[in-house]
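step: validate -> pass
step: tokenize input -> pass
step: predict -> running
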Amino acid sequence: MRIALNYLYLSEPLRVIESESIVLKFTEANKALLLVPTPEQDYFHIVMPMQLD
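step: predict -> pass
step: emit ->
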């Protein structure tokens, strides 16, 4: 599976998430990704992938 993302959409939320680790949840390459801190808190970030041709 190949997923294309704009790196800024990953680096920006990582700057504000205070947890030392995160979980990246996804179902398919063309569906939204969910960044969730571990242990889970009241915060998550959604990232939409770019389309690959």
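step: describe -> The mean pLDDT is 88.
step: cleanup -> pass
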